[in-house]
Design a protein that fits this description.
The complex is a heterodimer. Helices cover 43% and strands 19% of the residues of chain A. In chain A, the strands form 2 sheets. A 6-stranded parallel sheet of chain A has the order 2-1-3-4-5-11, sandwiched between helices. About 5% of the residues of chain A have low confidence. Chain B is mainly alpha-helical. Chain B has a two-stranded antiparallel sheet with strand order 1-4. In chain B, strands 2-3 form a two-stranded antiparallel sheet. In chain B, strand 2 and strand 3 form a beta hairpin. In chain B, 50% of the residues are buried. Classes of the chains: A alpha/beta, B mainly alpha. Chains A and B meet through helix 1, helix 2, strand 7, helix 7 and helix 8 of A and helix 3, helix 6, helix 7, helix 12 and helix 14 of B.
């Protein structure tokens, strides 16, 4: 009976693979570097709203350049990502790779494999620790984004003293660490700003909800919150709602809030005037520059500069009307 | 004499639920250490936060008591939430949405249960696979986007009845129902029997497959109910909901005294385990500890609680003559 069970599972797996292969719209064209059409392998660490936007950005730039796209998601598993990239290089014979690394150190092995096989390796969004095998890298500038957030807090603190709750993303994510460090360094020594609570969220909405609730319970005088990603904004707003403190700007109970990313949650909150500012990540640049770098590499041209840090775009209530069209999450 | 009448039942309670004094000591220490911890609002907050965990953990308790495991609970939670906000469901009345979501949970649990019971493939493998399947299905439905929950579906997470928050009421009802099912029904007895010694249960003519299917189906349904409460609190369905949640749920169950080898467990212990985990999380925020310390402290408290609860298992081991030490007083053979 047990062997029948394993046989059923094996048969099911084969069937699923067959179905997915037959229905997949993201099959490589089989082009070679000297062929008529190149296939670009895209490997993401995970898929969420911002990653969807990055994927769309790459796909539209790739389409404009005449490339097909082979896409895979590693579900936050560095080993899985390494296997997927190896498959793309060796089996699917992609001409170039665009990668958002789950682990900036472990991905070095994949970059080295790509270099050995003469496949340009482009990193976006997350920096790679060892740049030797990386053809081009474009990331945000998390430290600069954190400082930009702090600038909004410093400006707001001229009106009233701020007691700040700071949410922190995953402690293994360099973007989360950069956003935290940039913010903390900039507010250090500011007379009207007190950091009351620092809560880790592990990029988990439930942890953000519970952490915010607990922090507000601990200190009801908290009147400012730094949210390191729009992705956590709904959770924070739910906690504020439960504490009867989600109010629009101008209301005495309003809690000063600034986030990063510029996703649809952030844009919606800006329109509703429950969010004071959002530092928008330049998603469109990531896709365009990644494909442009891949094209240059395939043409044998030197890419310079090899590493670009794209600063976030400040979107606050003062410039929202004029700036929102430039923010990826505010489109539509 | 009067003090003996009081001490004996209290001692019995502590023997049966060694986590209870652990929780009480934890709460007392936190209350003494931090202003604002020992308030009605804060305890209410802890109860609300623990509620989805209690609900999911009650279901997991039945699974683990059959000597099984369900790694797909986090993914079931996500898929249930995705179905709740799907375009084909969201416009309907609250009752219809809840019935559909619970039915989805039953369906997911049924898949797990049938696969485990009928193919005899280890539950670890089956639920590892369904964990991926359910999460993928949820991602397909939501297109990996954050979807706001309509207002009419938020009451279960944000409303209250006679001052008691709805999630807490739901958790209490489910915990009581779970405890009654476990202690007073034939199904509950069969779960213990199957987990204790499956071959003997088969020889005794117990419907082992039916029990396994029932346990996993119950876990699936309760994961869906937990999802209703949790997403109502969050106000939105997000792609990462439930990721890693299975570990937290299993921790609460094991912390509560349910044996991973099956046959022994306690719904009350599971509830206490969930409350301890949530209280520790709250206490860490009150302590303003560095974020890097959170995981260390959580693990440390889990270790301390398990060691403290471990004294019960030593007495049982002594009573069974497994250690060669004589025991002065009778110890119960089961932990329920």
């Amino acid at each position: 009976m047990k062997s029948i069970g394993w046989a059923i599972i094996a048969a099911g797996a084969v069937a699923l693979l067959t179905v997915s292969a037959c229905t997949s719209s993201e099959t490589p064209s089989g082009g070679t570097k000297t062929g008529s059409k190149h296939a670009v392998g895209v490997s993401f660490d995970l898929l969420n709203a911002i990653r969807q936007a990055e994927k769309s950005s790459i796909e539209s730039a790739a389409k404009a350049a005449g490339y097909s796209v082979v896409f895979s998601v590693a579900d936050q598993d560095a080993q899985k990502q390494a296997s997927q990239i190896q498959d793309m290089i060796q089996t699917q014979k992609v001409s170039g790779l665009i990668v958002i690394a789950q682990d900036g150190k472990q991905i070095t092995a994949s970059a080295s494999l790509a270099k050995a096989r003469h496949v340009p390796f482009v990193a976006i969004d997350r920096a790679i620790a060892d740049q030797q095998a990386v053809s081009f890298q474009i990331t945000g500038d998390p430290v600069s984004d954190g400082r930009a957030v702090a600038a909004e807090f410093i400006d707001a603190a001229t009106q009233q003293p701020l007691k700040v709750l700071e949410l922190v993303g995953a402690l293994t994510d360099q973007n989360a660490i950069g956003r935290r460090d940039g913010f903390n360094a900039a507010i250090k020594g500011q007379p009207n700003i007190t950091l009351v609570s620092q809560v880790p969220t592990d990029w988990n909405p439930s942890q953000a909800l519970d952490g915010t609730s607990n922090a507000l319970q601990k200190d009801s005088s908290i009147n400012a919150i730094y949210i390191p990603s729009d992705f956590l904004l709904p959770s924070v707003q739910s906690a504020l709602t439960a504490a009867k403190r989600l109010e629009a700007i101008g209301n005495a109970k309003h809690v000063f809030t600034v986030t990063i990313d510029g996703d649809p949650n952030g844009c919606k909150a800006m329109r509703q005037k429950t969010l004071d500012a959002d530092i928008a990540t330049p998603i469109q640049d990531f896709g365009k520059q990644a494909i442009a770098a891949t094209t240059s590499a395939l043409d044998g041209k030197t890419i310079s500069p090899r590493s670009v840090q794209a600063k976030g775009l400040m979107l606050n209530q003062a410039n929202f009307a004029s700036t929102q069209s430039q923010v990826w999450g505010c489109a539509g | 004499m009067n003090s003996t009448k009081l001490v004996r039942p209290l001692g019995e309670v502590v023997r049966r639920e060694p986590l209870l004094p652990v929780l009480l000591v934890l709460l007392i220490v936190l209350a003494a250490s931090y202003d604002g911890f020992a308030t009605v609002d804060n305890f209410r907050n802890i109860a609300i936060q623990a509620s989805p965990l209690v609900i999911a953990a009650v279901g997991m308790t039945f699974v683990i008591m059959t000597a099984g495991i369900d790694l797909s609970v986090g993914s079931m939670l996500f898929l249930a939430a995705a179905i709740e906000t799907s375009k084909s469901i969201v416009g309907h009345s609250t009752t219809v949405v809840f019935v559909v979501v619970c039915a989805a949970g039953i369906g997911m649990g049924l898949i797990n249960g049938l696969a485990v019971a009928c193919t005899r493939v280890p539950a670890l493998i089956v639920t590892l696979a369904t964990m991926e399947v359910f999460r993928g299905a949820g991602g397909h439905i939501t297109r990996q986007q954050s979807i706001d929950l309509p207002g009419n579906l938020r009451g279960i997470g944000t409303g209250s009845l006679l001052g008691v928050p709805n999630p807490v009421l739901l958790a209490i009802m489910i915990a009581l129902a779970g405890a009654l099912t476990f202690r007073r029904t034939v199904f509950g007895r069969y779960v213990q029997a199957v987990g204790s010694y499956e071959d003997a249960a088969v020889d005794a003519g117990l419907p082992v497959r039916g029990v396994l299917v029932g346990a996993y189906t119950l876990a699936g349904m309760l994961a869906a109910v937990a999802s209703l409460a949790q997403t109502a609190r969050l106000g939105a369905v997000q792609p990462s909901i439930g990721q890693g949640y299975e570990l937290t749920v299993i921790t609460a169950v094991v912390l509560g005294g349910t044996s991973l080898f099956g046959g022994r467990g306690s719904i009350a212990g599971t509830v206490l385990g969930a409350l301890i985990l949530t209280s520790v999380q709250t206490g860490l925020v009150f302590s303003s500890a560095s974020p890097y310390v959170f995981d260390i402290v959580r693990g440390g408290v889990l270790l301390a609680a398990v060691l403290a609860a471990g004294a019960r298992w030593r007495r049982i081991a002594h009573a069974l003559g497994l250690t060669g030490r004589r025991v002065r007083s009778k110890a119960s053979a089961t932990a329920v």
